[in-house]
DNA sequence: TTACGGAATTAGCACGTTCCAAAAGTCACG
DNA sequence: CGTGACTTTTGGAACGTGCTAATTCCGTAA
């Protein structure tokens, strides 16, 4: 009776009390119907349900969480949705949530720590039950820490040193080592590592694997071959000439860098796999399709995201938020860009 | 005094009252500080702020909206984040929100109407102020309608017939017409339209432009040349043989279909632009990079998203939710895949 | 008849915030 | 010292829901 105006107006949204009045019961009964309690008689349940749809009732979750009910929202804070790898990861998280009756909300921080702070704060303010976080590059664990207390947090893919939170990440070091071993096996002596900047956890791990493989093979670790560059196609293009001068092969920080590099090479008449060996990391969809097809260390972002979500949901169910570390396996997928079917170029 | 336990515990989150007590003021004053009111003395403001960070206070937006405050959350309901075009659109919305002090939350419906319903319901329950909606394919306006009353809703890209909500969309018909005119200008007589299914609004519009251009040129509209297919690479691959038999050129529903087609052709030894003319729609980033480079009707998803967000924020500011329609221009970007530099093949 | 027990329903407080009206404090002026 | 004007602070009633404990209803056994 208090709701039902058809055109837009100031008509307040129907509340549980309106529904109760409309159905001729108390608000407690309506609350029981909402929570699916078996206490309420079948006839009452249908009558109340009817009233709810008659009035266009919408549950007010703010009021509910206020009273102490648990929220079913998982926040996903992703650093860069324009990188297909992170999109895959987000989709993996979403898929896993569907099974567990959680609703994931995504926010894109665009690698901006300030925005990341805003976004996490918002998610907490709105009562998210847990967080899957892929931290922006220059994040400060100190700033984040107070925002993340008393809620389960899983860091996916990237890890932030000072943060006491679970980690779900690929075996970066192992994967990088395998990739460099492969290049060494093809006869390369001067192998570069391209992309990213110091203090990025993923880069450090991959770089460690790179160094390990060199060391195993008795090759020197030459800092001049470790080349920093922004994680985007033009960043890669910018260091292409330098690479050609200094080395015959490169392990790239990730596929975005590798693909940027292959394209920059192509524009200069250099063909990856024939004139220069390129290996990527992540194995995004495009790696399979680019010419020449990109050899890459496969991570399976979807599975990674799914594991993170499962861990989060398990922690929420048990109430035990003690940090756990999960390492997800990586495998080298050999295609064309590493020149596996050829010998490395003779020109030094 | 009630907060401050370091390890995880049952310690309740600090409330505005705790802060007030800690700072030696009333909760009303703290509330004023939170809202940035100029009423409160500078010295008091700093003292209260200090108490807030001392106690690790987190604003409880649920309680606030309960009392009647406006929410600053915009919901983005996106049908398919694995399509780069929609990712671009989402990023456009996000960018626009940053200027307007709104926080966008993304949800991915994976083209699943049931999930879409859940997601929209959740967003309403959590008090989203407005919605940017790119409806899933088989959405029902009837089911959606009651969920969307009394809140500004903008349909981006796609439109759902029965829905009374604003629309921000590209000039699909015009763009498709230009594309087909271009193909006709190159001498093609048998031009197919590939991808999507009936009842998809975007397809209907693009198909209308296709038909218009044929009609203008006096070419017959042959239903056998309008080929349905799922909007993904393998869907396109499935109809490639049929296309080769029936036509010499194709306008694809979008770039995802076009790229799938080009790859399927390549696998069969058919080169787009030389043996068969392919034109896409949307002009996603990959269109520029695939071989041969894809001729496509550019939409600029980022700008489209930005316009949608701006419209939404304007409506929220004014309180006037009357539906508006915004058409965003499209332009044909000619590259290689349409064979602009060659004549169409002589083989019928 | 009363007593009992289980099923179904309800009253009412609590949650953390905002907002209104009102109170208290401060200052200058006559 | 009283008055008025202005600045700053405060008490308390909402807001919509969940939960606990209490109440009613109904049928059956003593």
| Structural class designation of chain A | alpha/beta
How many strand units of chain A?
12
Rg value of chain A: 26 Å
Mean pLDDT across all residues of chain A, rounded? 92
Low-confidence runs of chain A: 1-10, 343-348
List the helices and strands and how they pair.
The structure is a homodimer of 348-residue chains.
Chain A: H1 16-23, H2 27-34, H3 42-55, H4 61-67, E1 73-78, H5 84-99, E2 103-108, H6 113-125, E3 130-133, H7 141-148, E4 153-156, E5 166-170, H8 172-185, E6 191-194, H9 201-216, E7 226-227, H10 233-246, E8 249-252, H11 255-267, E9 277-282, H12 285-289, E10 295-298, H13 301-318, E11 325-328, E12 331-333
Parallel strand pairs in A: 1-2, 1-3, 3-4, 4-5, 5-11, 6-7, 6-8, 8-9, 9-10
Antiparallel strand pairs in A: 10-12
The structure holds a DNA duplex (30 and 30 nucleotides).
Structure write-up:
Two copies of one chain form a homodimer. Chain A is built from 13 helices and twelve strands. In chain A, α1 packs across α2, α5 packs parallel to α13 and α10 crosses α11. The longest helix of chain A is centred in the C-terminal third of the chain and has 18 residues. The N and C termini of chain A lie far apart (85 Å). The first copy, chain A, has 348 residues and is α/β, with parallel strands linked by helices. At the A-B interface, α4, α5, β2 and α6 of A face α4, α5, β2 and α6 of B. The first copy, chain A, binds a DNA duplex (30 and 30 nucleotides) through α2 and α4.
